[in-house]
Sequence to fold (218 residues):
Amino acid sequence: MSDEAIHAAAAEHAEPGNRRDFLYIMTGAFTALGAVLTAWPFISEMSPDKATLAAGGPVDVDLAPLAVGQMMQVVWQSRPIFIVNRTPANLKELQDPKFETRLLDPNSNAPQQPAYARNWHRSIKPEFLVLVGICTHLGCIPTYRPDVGAGDLAPDWEGGYFCPCHGSKYDLSGRVYSGVPAPFNLPVPPHHYIAGTKLRIGENPPGQKFDFDSIAQV
Fold:
């Protein structure tokens, strides 16, 4: 007997109330399945193929679809990589000396990034932030909280990352706040732009040297 026939027979012999519940559950199940199948092409595009992950090689990402203020996540060497298209307001705030006084390492003195990303925006292109999304406290995954003035974090919150495990906070350059458990800024992986918005993660720019294993902590 086919699956369709089995489902029809089960529905026919069910009590009226149970039959309605059965039909409701089946409809919801097929709706959920359809949503997953629809979303899969997008999820697949955001993740590198298995061969790339196994080799631990570079991962290429096109940032053109990433809208201002949005974040996307990809995987490099089994690590989550956060990429944010920062707004002009974000970039202005990151340069405010008053804001820097709230940070543990505002000048990125700890070796948590390559030399070519040791600047106020901790990246190659100021608008695009590229980070390893692993909290430097106990390895949890921080959440992206771009909402300025989020009351549950702080009245003067300017957007960034929050680790719900133990309360560590980072700004939109991945710089850690003072007075939280995390001891270091979020790491910046080796990366460079092949052309335009085509980003390659896991490979340094031509002529630059940086070994990711040399960072203080991930």
Notes: Residues 16-46 form the longest helix (31 residues).
